[in-house]
Structures are given as structure tokens and as C-alpha cells.
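tool_call: predict_structure(chain=1)
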Amino acid sequence: MNTRPAIDESTGPIALNVGFNQDSSCFAVGLDTGFCGSCVFNSDPCELKVSRDFNAGIGATEMLGKANYIALVGGGKNPKFPINKLIIWDDAKQFAAVTLEFPTQVLQSRLSRSQILIALHNTISLYAFSSPPKKTTHPASAASGPKSSLSQAEPQARCKWLKSVPETSVSYPPTAPP
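tool_result:
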């Protein structure tokens, strides 16, 4: 018997993820129905700038500054994109500008004007932000755990993300140079 009343009985969209841009002035919210992007000006007022209803879920979002590019990964009960694909969405043109497919689930990403950093289960990959994207390093193994390896990383310089990964958890594949 359930004697507790529900805290929230709304049937509106469910937030699956929040991703801030590099200076935390804007953020995008991944919803089970799409995504919405908001800009925060000194944290007040918080106003909605963009909203896209895909009628499907977005499980991870990451903004590129105040530009029109947003990294998206499908999520929720009805994902818009496969969970093993990273989509760089060009919101000005409203289409997928870049698509990267991986053998496992994309956990998190970081964007800069020159690089795309992607965290998978036990692997981190770095790509040049170009068309088509080019892998700039060999994938590095990293500690497992959702979002643990990119929580503080910003891909503004090659391999700067190594500082955010515990030294004991990074190992290169045997074919990679030391």
C-alpha cells in the first residue's frame, strides 16, 4: 500500500541532463521530448532562448560557447538518436552537422572551437572539430564510471583532460606511442 502522496504529478517533459557552456553563461537541458537552451545573464534573469521538440529524448547535451552548436546524445525511454552516437547539432540550420558513432554508449562530451572530447565506457577520444572530424590522439583508457573522467576537463589544449583523470587510471593501448 502506497500511503505517500506523489511529490509531483505533472506529466510535462522530464529533464534528463543539463550541460553548461565553457563560461557557464548558457546551458542546454536534455529532455525526454527534445532539448531547450537557456542563457543565463548573471544568473538573473534566466530566460529561454531556444527550444526544439523532437518528440524523442536527449540524454546528454553540451554547448559550444554561445555558438549555435550543441552536442547531443539520445536518451530516455524513446531516444532521438542512438546512445552510441554523438551528434553535433547546428541549431541555426537545424540539422546534424557532425555525427560520430562509437562501439559503446557516449557518456559525456566537451566541445571547443577546435576539438571534440568524448567519454565512453573506459575510453576517452579526442577529435579535431572539422568536417569530417579527425581523431587527433589514440583513445586513452580511463577509470570507469559515468562522467567521472570529463567532469572537470575542457578540451582547449591537446590532452589537457589528462589532468582531470587520476594518473593511475590512464593507460594507452599497446599500439599507441608512449
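agent: Residues 12 and 151 are 29 Å apart (CA to CA). Proceeding to next step.
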